[in-house]
Amino acid sequence: MPKNKNKMNVPRLVLHEKSNTPIFSSAGLQRVEIKTQKTKFWRHQHEKPDTYLATIEAIYYFVVEFHKLFLRSEYVGEYDNLLFFFCFMYNKIKGLYDGGKYLKAYSKKS
């Protein structure tokens, strides 16, 4: 039986090498960088620029741009609810860490 050449790589559960904690491995998955947007994500991404967005940020910016380009109508916040929990956690983390000024994610250079 021939192998499916269009087989998609999906994340798989693996154990973190140091903590032995289960995590999802994204090895082999495609990544996309939206260079026109900067992340507000609170977790430091070592040696990555500010344009490496959290997944939900990338989805949000994609659907907003899709809306503008292909639906050809003004965007008036139809997809803003996608960021509800992201914004909730963003504000919570910033509040817990003195406005975020001591978090690496907010002190790194672009």
Gross geometry: globular
Mean of residue pLDDT values: 76
The structural class is mainly alpha
Number of strands: 2
What profile does the largest beta sheet have? 2 strands, antiparallel
Treating each run of at least 4 consecutive H or I residues as one helix, how many helices? Answer: 3
Low-pLDDT segments: none
Multimerization status: single chain
The termini sit apart by 49 Å
Q: Helical amount among residues, as a percent range?
A: 25-40%
Give the percentage of residues in beta strands.
5-15%
Biggest sheet, strands in spatial order?
Answer: 1-2
Question: How large, in whole angstroms, is the Cα Rg?
Answer: 18 Å
The topology string of helices and strands comes to EEHHH
Question: Can I get a quick summary?
Answer:
The chain has helices at residues 55-71, 84-96, 104-107; strands spanning 12-15, 22-25. With 110 residues, it is mainly α.
